[in-house]
Amino acid sequence: MFNGKSIFISGGTGSFGRKFIRILLERYQPKRVVVFSRDELKQYEMQQEFNEPCMRFFLGDVRDAERLHQGMRGIDYVVHAAALKHVPAAEYNPTEFIRTNVNGAENIIAAAIANGVKGVIALSTDKAASPINLYGATKLLSDKLFVAANNIAGDQATRFAVVRYGNVAGSRGSIVPFFNKLIAQGASELPITDVRMTRFWITLEHGVDFVMKSFARMQGGEVFVPKIPSIRIVDLAQAMAADLPHKLVGIRPGEKLHELMVPLDDARMTLEFADHYTIVPSIRFNNVDADFSLDGLGEQGRAVADEFEYRSDTNPHFLTVEQIAALHADIKP
Ligand SMILES: NC(=O)c1ccc[n+]([C@@H]2O[C@H](COP(=O)([O-])OP(=O)(O)OC[C@H]3O[C@@H](n4cnc5c(N)ncnc54)[C@H](OP(=O)(O)O)[C@@H]3O)[C@@H](O)[C@H]2O)c1
To answer: Which residue out of 8, 10, 16 has the highest number of ligand 1 atoms within 8 Å of its CB and is therefore the one to mutate?
Structure first.
């Protein structure tokens, strides 16, 4: 679906953006791929690696509506991956997160509608489901803006949907590179926040694949949630360094013991499909009752039970220590 199309990726130099573009170029022949982000060094380095003629690099900030407007000229599809995402940093710098994650989302929507973009997928996080930290709260606001944008678009063809998933194994600033660094420095123990802690776990490839499919699935207004495994943090530490003891350091500001992707209160809006859940919008767009049970790929979904919740601790699918080690051979230093 991306052959001959122009694709814009905000945050294109990040972990997700780079993997998305690598897979996009392997599978399709896009007309133009626009990377939009702030730091010139990351773009310069990416340019050395991604030198295909379709690549375009735009320096810009999602806080800057005019620059987004320019970058989206002639664009067919937008992936919105730019975000500030470090949980403790958000607690200390709330207004910065609001400017990038919330005002930035608003600017992406306006630029997409003004440029007649066909489809926009915004990346969300499990931390946006019943949020307890500022980062999660900004991502929930962003999700709400993208869902409601289908109404603002009116007769315009632009459709917006959200993809929500959990921790990406090995992404920048996450626990895997943190543990790897400690192990490489010869640490005598690994810090564990709480032995009970669980997290959803997804590989970047799976995330990219899911986002690509979501463009084909979407009608507009959905929050797509992939079915992914959970891990126990102690099992991750064990998989990365079986010989190192664990030191309990306590939960960090704004952290949850377990993560959530579909809260109980959203159960009545949730459909289950073979490999994912879809949270359908609670509002109607342009006074039309849409049927989300049959998606753009022809897949059929069915309502979940009223008491359904998708949580990392009650997830039926947990990875074992061996599976974590095997799945992420790159988690060893
Ligand atoms: N990593 C995870 O575990 C995870 C899990 C669930 C959801 N997500 C979501 O997935 C998305 C991508 O995450 P990621 O792991 O790829 O993050 P990342 O590696 O930190 O990349 C973030 C990207 O956004 C850009 N960016 C940040 N602020 C910007 C701004 N104001 N204007 C323009 N670009 C900006 C960064 O480049 P510059 O700094 O150069 O601008 C970078 O390219 C985010 O929306 C995140 O919330 C991530």
So the answer is: 16
